[in-house]
Amino acid sequence: MKRRDFMQTSTVLTATAAFLPASLLSTKVMAANVQKFPAPLKPTLDGDVKVFHLFIDIHIQEIVPGFKIHTLAFNNQVPGPEIRVKRGDKVRVIFKNKTELNHTIHWHGMHVPWRMDGVPYVTQMPVMPGQEFVYEFTAEPQGTHFYHCHWGTLLHMQAGMYGSLIVEEDDDPIRKQFPYEREYTLLYSAHDVNFLREEMNSMLERMKERMYLMKTGRFNKERFAVFDTKEEFVQAVKNGYQPPYVVNRRAPAGLPVANWFTVNGKSYPMTPNLYIKSGENIRVRLINAGMEEHYLHLHGHDFWQVADDGLPVPQPWQRNTLRLSPGKTTDIIIEGKNRGIWTFHDHDTRRVTNNGLYPGGNLLALVYEDLPAKETELNMMAKKMGLKNLPIVALDE
Amino acid sequence: MYFIKKVFLFVLLSGLLYGAFAQVSPEIQLGARGVISFNTDISGSQKATSVNDFSDTGLLLGFRQKLYNRFRGQLVIGLQFPDADSDLGQVFFHQTFLRIEDQKNILKMGRSRVQSALIEFPTLRDDDALFLTDVLNPFSSGENTEDNQYGNVIEAAHVFAQRYWLRLHGEHFTKTPQQPATAETDFSLNAVGASFVYRVPETQIWNRPFIQQIGLGFNNFLTDRRGYSSHFDKTLKNILVSGIFNIKPDPIYFVDARFQVVYNLGFKEVKTVGSFYDLTRAAAAAHFFSLRFLYRKLERPTLQLALSGGFKVFPNLTNKTRQWQVIANAFYRLGENFDTVLQIQQTRFTGDLQALYGKTETRFQIGLVYSIDQRWNKQFEDRNSLLNLEHGYIP
Fold this sequence. Notes:
- The complex is a heterodimer of chains A (397) and B (395).
- Helix content of chain A is 19%, strand content 34%.
- Chain A is built from 9 helices and 20 strands.
- In chain A, the strands form 4 sheets. Chain A has a 6-stranded mixed β-sheet.
- In chain A, strand 2 and strand 3 (67-74) form a beta hairpin.
- Residues 1-20 of chain A have low confidence and may be disordered.
- In chain B, a hairpin with a 2-residue loop joins strand 15 and strand 16 (338-349).
- With 395 residues, chain B is mainly beta.
- A 16-stranded antiparallel barrel of chain B has the order 1-3-4-5-6-7-8-9-10-11-12-13-14-15-16-17.
- The mean pLDDT of chain B is 90.
- Chain B is globular.
- Chain B has one domain (26-176, 187-390): Porin.
- The chains are: A alpha+beta (397), B mainly beta (395).
- The interface between A and B is medium-sized, with 29 and 23 residues.
């Protein structure tokens, strides 16, 4: 093999993680890609109120082929379905808890009435197994937001309880400045699947016991580790009550250390692609619903950062890497100015792994639909390897 | 320069070898149990004390990993400190086995606990009532209890509908060497058996109806019965029936009851019991019961009180022979998995057994028990986790 061929092959197989073009542009792949973004939840109308139905249940999610985990999924989807409304819409979300765990829904970034904020014991009692809770609010402010469970948040969020909430504005300044037709929502998360499994089992076991006590009216504050006031809690400790974090009651294995990183509930090579055409603008709504920071870098482009926490920034600025902290939403506009196939990934490459193996995690691609076939021809090495059809993934470093 | 080259080559080769033979990190399991008691025994008018009885103290080390298919593989090595007069030495390796399993099938081979009992009873040590709770090993001289509890086993189990366990097993039970010792030790299969048990998984404790577990077992020892040539006639047959019932499945004040009957069909020619050899071959029915109360304060066990007792009858012996035993104990939890315990037991023998073991024995024990079960590098769920049982099994 000539050195040039070797270099060319290596570049394709490693540096760009071998997103090879022909398959990416097949009709089948492009049609399947649509399913990799959160499906909008259709509301019904009750007068002028848009009514959405959400339920939560335990669901098995296949993050990548061959690797499944138990998740907590809104409407059996991870992430949950996308709620998309207009600014000023009256919204009612009827939430049904089908699990044996407690939950709430917090509307992250939304200016809801405080009793609708979904914080257990602060704004509402938890929604207990089998119960229903109705959230009502007016959609405000505009922009990219999300919803998530606020009970046992460390576990429940990484178990899948999050979904996008998009508040559109008719007179959107971003669309005015960067006219676009297509937009994509990407929800990032990080999962310690061992922590998830252990804690979910542990919580389910505890809740079975607690439900038994509830039925017989013997479930009290100390069992639930909930007190009316801080003073009451302090007094209870003085009287011998031992909080759950004291080792002789229950000792968790430790804080989670994420080993799987997902975009819209999937890891590479099952992550979604962002399709674009030369001369087109696309809007990408980035939501970090996980517990890790991400440093997202787009190859071959400088994108415009146009919104921060849902709010349009007064002066968009260009960059090719952005920091997406936990709880943060950022909107970017990508201009189709450099035809090709470009990776978009976390530059903390520990998160471009699946259970420690590169490539994986939140790696995905920006794909130009108008890429000429000539530019996607097989190279000599690929032919020698016996590849008849170009693959879309390469998992071997 | 030549030396540097050699060092470089060594490092390079080491790296290549490491790369070629890098191993999957297994899940590592550590189980430990410390049982220390101060015993006072009164046999008739004689009194004996033991300051430090640490028998049953043991250590288990396990390694598990996923295999290429839906199976998982496991290696367990365990050691125990046996009774001082057991003739087993300072340390006894009671567990050394390999196991592969999937959701419904288990295959286990190696040294392990034999299927001499279907359930465990709430006594301080596993062998406190061994004569009544276990099928006894007819190949042993009876010098120790471990001969009855551990052996070289091969077991295959199938789990139906998460709760029905069908188990086929074969064992080599330890055979006490005859004097003079033979040149070669025989490790061939000398017992076979089967059991069928309905068992509610531990994780579903609060779903439990009245029946927690009920089972039926058969154990057959392949003996060299004198005067008989047919293999079937030489077989010493035991039947086990057991059950555990939730009297009050309450999370705070929990009460359960359990029983087991071990019916040894025996050999009809055994009319007297003058040794352990006869004892294991005499037709007998051993009955054992227990009632357990468990107080759980704030979701953790705090106090356990148990009253157990049983008797054994020998219908074919010339002399009317009986064994009675009562055990009462209390465990109080001092901290996570750390208990202090008080146990009193009395055993009474009549007929042929009185000559062997005395008329009565009373034992007072006060002690401490510490047991842990830790795992590192966890990788997968157990068959009986709630997620696997109730929300779809993930291999």
